[in-house]
Design brief:
The structure is a single chain. The chain folds into 2 domains: about 150 residues, VC0802-like; about 170 residues, Rossmann fold (3-Layer(aba) Sandwich). It contains 11 helices and 15 strands. Strand 5, helix 4 and strand 6 form a beta-alpha-beta unit. The strands form 2 sheets. Strands 2-3-1-4-8-7-5-6 form an 8-stranded mixed β-sheet. A 7-stranded mixed β-sheet has the order 11-10-9-12-13-15-14. Helix 2 packs parallel to helix 7 and helix 3 runs parallel beside helix 4. It has about 400 residues and is an alpha/beta fold. Helices cover about 30% and strands about 25% of the residues. Bound molecules: S-adenosylmethionine (SAM).
Length: about 400
């Protein structure tokens, strides 16, 4: 593999940038610089591959091909045309171009996208005699361009499908948490595999499945394809080496106590199937991972102390539902105070009123974005003796 240094940009949910910077530094990234919504870094192409394979927090890794000033759409055409696309893209491959902008002086991003696409296609036709076609659904190669007020930066996408797709999810469930947000939640909570973990609203099982993968030191990208595997410039030998090392690092017998429960038996069955697809059959069989049907208002305490990491149903979208969710969370608050003394609960929600509903005082609050949705991750310390039964309603 070439030792040349390249620039990359890792996209992630807002709120996870600093943690992602640490994660990237751990796989050898250099000049790591957190920005809003992602992290810029430098490294060899193998570093870019390793980031795809090992990052739990990134949504996508982009390989920067050029960056320069622009003022008009024609400048974007010239910037796209100047890149040696034939080193990366075959003439029979399909392409997709996406442009994002903040403060760009252009009238139409659609036209900007078209000019960039023309620049790429013309350059490829001049070099190879053939025009690649555009496929917005399942492109072989994705090109991204980011425009700020004066600079246009062109990237090749190394990831393909977004990185939070680990390759095990069959059913979308009701409202599954993205795997990289689940990993972020566990990281922010400081969870280590030595701590018992409970998700009492586990849905499709995302948080506990991610936790098992962390405990087993299983690289999150071991079971999925990547965009870079389709590039002409792909270095197969370097990729094979990285993957073999990641496989050898897996600790199948890792100790852990992970419990996911949900009120819906259908959802729990689905979570079990997901866990099996994630390679966790042995974990289910020997009880390191338990997925059970239970109501969070009465769920059993699995250990004397431990960590709860969860995202309960959100009730904000529809008002009648919101009252039900608030009542549930109030009862869950009572149950936690009574039966989970000594535990710490980390709860991710869009509902700012959650601590009030649960009658718990948060000891920390972190803002995290689930796409455009602004969420809060609340930490509650469940102290012994903190439970006082509610006063019975006074007779009228
Ligand atoms: C926002 S979803 C959780 C999504 C989950 N983190 C995932 O990644 O799939 C909320 C879940 O809470 C469950 N739920 C609702 N009320 C419950 C209750 N009283 N006890 C336990 N689970 C409940 C729903 O069935 C739903 O699966």
């Amino acid at each position: 593999m070439s030792a040349a240094t390249h620039q990359f940009f890792a996209i992630c949910p807002r709120g996870l940038e600093i943690l992602l910077a640490d994660e990237l530094a751990a796989v050898g990234a250099q000049a790591v610089k957190p920005e809003s919504g992602g992290v810029a870094f430098a490294g060899t192409l193998a570093t870019g591959y390793a980031a795809n394979l090992h990052s739990r927090l990134a949504s996508r890794i982009l390989w920067q091909l050029s960056s320069g000033s622009y003022a008009r759409e024609d400048d974007l055409y010239a910037a796209a045309h100047a890149i040696r696309w034939d080193e990366h893209v075959g003439s029979r491959q399909t392409l997709r171009v996406d442009v994002s902008a903040s403060g760009a002086p252009l009238k139409s991003l659609e036209f900007a996208t078209l000019r960039i696409k023309d620049g790429i296609v013309d350059r490829l036709r001049e070099r190879t005699g053939a025009r690649p076609s555009i496929d917005r659904e399942r492109p072989d190669v994705r090109v991204f361009c980011h425009l700020d007020a004066t600079t246009a930066t062109l990237y090749l996408d190394l990831s393909g499908e977004a990185l939070f797709k680990r390759g095990w999810r069959l059913d979308k469930g009701e409202a599954p948490l993205k795997e990289n947000l689940a990993a972020g939640l566990l990281k922010l909570a400081g969870w280590t595999p030595a701590q018992p973990l409970l998700d009492p609203f586990c849905g499709s099982g995302t948080i506990v499945i991610e936790a098992a993968s962390i405990a087993a030191q299983r690289a999150p990208g071991l079971n999925r394809p990547f965009g870079f595997e389709r590039l002409h410039s792909h270095d197969r030998a370097a990729w094979r080496e990285l993957k073999q090392a990641a496989l050898a690092a897996v600790v199948e017998r890792a100790a852990a106590q992970l419990v996911g429960s949900d009120i819906s038996t259908r959802v729990v069955d689905q979570a079990r199937l997901n866990a099996e697809r994630a390679g966790l059959r042995a974990w289910l069989d020997d009880g390191r991972l338990r997925l059970t049907a239970a109501d969070a208002r009465t769920v059993e305490t699995p250990a004397a102390t431990g960590l709860i990491a969860t995202n309960p149903p959100y009730g904000v979208q529809s008002e009648p539902k919101s009252a039900t969710v608030a009542a549930t969370m109030s009862a869950v608050g009572d149950h936690l105070k009574q039966d989970f003394a000594g535990w710490t609960a980390w709860i991710l929600t869009v509902d700012r009123a959650l601590p009030k509903q649960m009658r718990l005082q948060e000891t920390r609050k972190t803002v995290l974005f689930n796409g455009p949705l602004e969420c809060r991750l609340f930490r509650f310390e469940l102290v012994a003796g903190g439970y006082r039964p509610r006063a019975a309603a006074k007779p009228a």
